[in-house]
Amino acid sequence: MCNKLKILIIGVTILPVLLNCTSKQNNLTGITLEDYKFSVAVIDSLKKENFNYKMDYKLEKIISEWTGFKILNEKLLNSNGIKHNLKTLKKTEIKEIFKNLEKNLPTIINSIKIFSRINVLESTTLILHDAINNFSLEDEYVINLENNMSIAFLNLMKQIDLTQEKNSQIILQEKFSNNTK
Q1: Who's near 125: CB < 8 A, 6+ residues apart?
Q2: CA-to-CA distance for 130 and 106, rounded, in angstroms?
Q3: According to the model, what pLDDT value does residue 45 have?
Q4: What's the rounded Cα separation, in Å, for the pair 146 and 157?
Q5: I need a labelling partner for 62 at 20 to 30 A (CA). Which of 11, 54, 111, 129 fits?
Q6: 144-153: per-residue pLDDT in tens?
Q7: Distance CA 125, CA 76 (A)
Q8: pLDDT band at 12 (very low <50, low <70, confident <90, very high)
Q9: How far apart are CA 166 and CA 161, in angstroms?
C-alpha cells in the first residue's frame, strides 16, 4: 500500500512538470509532412515498367512450371508494355489472371506471405487499370501507380525467392537429418 502511495505522489508531482514543458526542442506543433520525407535509393531509382527480376536457376524452374505466372507474363507483363496491356484487358480478365495465379501456386512457395504479395499486386494492378482508363497515360498519377505496380511485382518476386530458399533449406536439413540417423 505504501509503494502505491509513493508512486501516486511521484506521478502527481511530475505530471504537471512534463505537461508544461514547452521548449523549442520539444515543441511538436511546427512539424510538417516535409520533415518526415525519406528516400530509399532502390525505390527512387526504379524506372517506368521495370519488371525485371534476376532469378537463379532453381527459381526459374519453379516459375516455369507455374501456369498462373505464365499467364500473368503473357497477358500483362509482356513486351507490349503494361499500360497498353491494361488498356486492352477488362477488369474481369485481370481478376481472372490473379485468381489463376493463386490457384496453381507451386507447393514449395505456397505461403501466406506469397498470397498477400499477390493480393497487393492485384490491387495495384486494378487501381492502375482504372487510372489508365480515366486519366492520360502521361499523367503523374498514372506514372506513380505504374511505379507502385512495379514495386509490388518486385516485392512478390523477392518474397517468392526468399520462400523458395527457406523451404529448400528446410528440405535439405530434413534429408540430412534422415541420412545421419
Answers
A1: 76, 86, 94, 98, 149, 152
A2: 30
A3: 45
A4: 17
A5: 129
A6: 998 999 899 9
A7: 10
A8: low
A9: 9
Contacts of 55 (CB under 8 A, 6+ apart): 63, 157, 161
CA distances from 1 to 5, 6, 160 (A): 6, 9, 57
End-to-end CA, the chain: 60
What's the maximum distance between 2 C-alpha atoms anywhere in the chain? 77
The region, left, alpha or beta by phi > 0 then psi within -120 to 50, assigned to residue 81 is left
The set of cell numbers assigned to 100 is 489463376
- Report pTM: 0.66
Q: What is the mean pLDDT of residues 145-164?
A: 90
Query: How far is it, in rounded angstroms, from Cα 72 to Cα 68?
Result: 6
22, 23, 24, 26 alpha-carbon torsion, rounded to 10°: -70
Cell of 162: 526468399
Single-letter code of the amino acid located at 7: I
Residues 30-55 as b/e (b if ≥16 CB within 10 A, e otherwise) read eeeeeeeeeeeeeeeeeeeeeeeeeb
